Amino acid sequence: MTKTHHRSDLSIDQRLALKTAATNLQREFADTFGVETIERFLHSSYDEFAGRATIIKFLPLLAERFARQRLRALAKVEGLSHDERPTVLFLCTHNAGRSQMAMGFFTHFAGEQAVAWSGGSEPAGEVNPAAVAAMAEVGIDISTEFPKPWTDEIVQAADVVITMGCGDACPVFPGRRYEEWVLEDPAGLDVAATRPIRDDIERRVRELLGDIGATPLRSVAH
Known about the structure:
This protein is α/β, with parallel strands linked by helices. The protein contains seven helices and four strands; from the N terminus they run H-H-H-E-H-E-H-H-E-E-H. It has a four-stranded parallel β-sheet with strand order 2-1-3-4.
């Protein structure tokens, strides 16, 4: 059974790390959101990861990264962002394999032309090691990514939502472009069995980039 880590259980170092995260976010979003909104997003992001984390050391950092993504999404939804780049959201069940590989390819190819996010209906505890290894083979590092849920503001801020097997759990908001990619789930597979899924995802991502008017800026090693 996964232990739930409450903020009241934090060590002094963890409390300081969370306070530093709040300061960082307040500095970045000072002209967009008030302190209460920023801290609410940070703390709810922390609670999301704390509910299923087995190692609490990196919780403040994960919370800061996720809160930053959510605040950027909220700014876009509320018309407070000047970032007009297309945003693509990749969704699968565990946000551990397919959607992480897709985001890895998209970010690698698109560079600063577009934004990619990912999420899962039932986020896993870590990114699938076979997916990490398969992506490393083509020169893309997704080892620092982490499974995370989607939130309403993240889905609403996306221009394109790519779903991969999350079924009825996938969120639907009007005005988004939705596309379902039918791909085998690499959960439980070894690297050899994951490679064909990786290569299929690469092909689909290249096609998607063309659809949104972005040009692949980099190649990958095969």
